[in-house]
Amino acid sequence: MRAMLNRPSNRQHAYTDLYDESRRAFLVQYPVGLIIGLGLAGVAVFMLTGFLGFRDPLEPDLTATIFKEPWALYLWFCALIIALQCSILRHPSLRPQLVATLAVTITCIILVGVIYYYNRDLTRFLQDFLQNLGLRIPQIGQSALTYTVLNFGIIAIFWLSTIRRWARRAMNKPLRVSANIGLDETVDLAATEPELPQLVAGDLIAGTIIVLVLGLLFQANVINALSNLLQTGVTIDTCAVTFPGTGCVSPGDLAAHSTLNFLDIIQALVYLPLGLLTLALSAVIKGLGQQVDADDTSSIYERVVRELINTVRAALNRRVGIAFNLALGLRTVAWPALILLGTIAVAAASRGIQGYLHLLSDQRTCADAGYTVAACGSEQVADFVRTNLANFAQYQNVGLALLWGVIAVLSIVFSAALLLFRWRVAENSLRFLGLVGFTVLLTFWIFSLALSGFNGLFSLTHLSDRVPFPQPGTATIASFAALLLFGGYYLLQRLRRPRAGTPEPAPVASQRSQQ
């Protein structure tokens, strides 16, 4: 890993590039030991997740307690995240960004790992501890203070960053604070950045979008839906998304003037008119500031209309408009939030994979035995397995795991792109990951069959009666089918290529006669 980080980048490419599109070659060469170590560790954590941590009493209490949650698989995925971040930010000039990214990532890994998997256990421990002292605390996910701090904290960070940019623009300083990735060019401030009135108007409209999104998210039904999707077990009512200290009584009033949704809508109705007025006044000021013929009303009309069109066009410009202001204003809070989202997605994917593997094993050890108590361990476990298999929960789990995996990849890549404020980072990194993912897809059936081999080994040696990797499995079939499909396509392409003609040798007799 140290050799990978210290290897200088090719000057023809950006420092963050992972793939050379012209030569179609990878720019990052990982140490063989790192790849082998991550591969073997992945096999080990999949085995631990598949064979241990079941709900039935047939498993020893020690392993059932330790591996109740898929923390081993979660940490392995987090190691892959850190490897990706180190790959993107490997250049020595990007060390400050790498240190900041790793600090945020490690903090998120610890917080998400503890709160997501052991929220109830931690809350129960704290409540028991504080109950002895005569105190009581609510769960973090059910506290109105939690959602209020998140809502207004994001808004406060946006406006602090926005006011700072207004001050920089007023002093004619550049707004673009993107990192140097080896492709910097001279920036024309007047041509590439908005004027102060346009900047203020764009930020007010961007603030409108932010508070409307927050108002949509911080509603009880939306949070409960996200909680069910993440399988956190947190359920709230309207009082949890109401401003604290307003006397809300459960379940609360959806139309109350103290809910976060109502307060955010009020802010949006303040920001949006101010933004539109600023755009209009900016056009009027520009129109009045230029020479016009007072006797020719058509010239005044043309001037005002032209300035209005130019102002709206500038507001919609992707480089200096509202979208740019929104990205720049949210940059400070968005890239750590994306890392947090990616970490949560990894935790949710790990839980989905565990549910998929456990249900595959339950199907062999419990369902095939007729849901007997001897095979399942208890009637409650038998009912649980029967219900989930009837609802095809195993396929739902693997589908959600894939979805959360994609969300995690996109979140981590775009967090680095937003931190450096360069679209090239996301574009090149996603191309690199697409090629890596395609390679994994073609070879995953080998790992799947290897894990199935451990099923047979443990069954013959009576180490475990569990069968979490039965064959033919869905992943094995999909991977091997992809290999055959693309292999056949490649073979057809090779057969269709015209064969190059071989040059005819010179006549030997004529050569001798010339001599």
Helix/strand-derived class?
Answer: mainly alpha
Order of helices and strands: HEEHHHHHHHHHHHHHHHHH
**β content, as a range?**
under 5%
Distance between the termini: 64 Å
Uncertain regions spanning at least 5 consecutive residues: 1-11, 186-190, 509-515
Strand order of the largest sheet: 1-2
Domain count: the total is 2
Shape: globular
Q: What is the mean predicted local confidence, pLDDT?
A: 81
Number of strands: 2
- Major sheet characteristics: 2 strands, antiparallel
Helical residue percent? 55-70%
CA-atom Rg in angstroms? 30 Å
Please tally the helical runs, counting DSSP H or I stretches of 4 or more residues. Answer: 18
SSE blueprint and pairings:
Blueprint: H1 2-6, E1 19-20, E2 25-26, H2 32-51, H3 61-66, H4 71-88, H5 95-131, H6 144-170, H7 189-192, H8 196-217, H9 220-230, H10 260-288, H11 297-316, H12 322-367, H13 373-376, H14 379-390, H15 393-420, H16 423-460, H17 474-496, H18 508-514
Antiparallel strand pairs: 1-2
Protein model, in words:
- This protein has 515 residues and is an all-alpha fold.
- The chain folds into 2 domains: 2-141 and 325-494, no CATH class; 142-324, no CATH class.
- It has helices at residues 2-6, 32-51, 61-66, 71-88, 95-131, 144-170, 189-192, 196-217, 220-230, 260-288, 297-316, 322-367, 373-376, 379-390, 393-420, 423-460, 474-496, 508-514, and strands spanning 19-20, 25-26.
- The protein has a two-stranded antiparallel sheet with strand order 1-2.
- The longest helix is centred in the C-terminal third of the chain and has 46 residues, at 322-367.
- The termini are far apart.
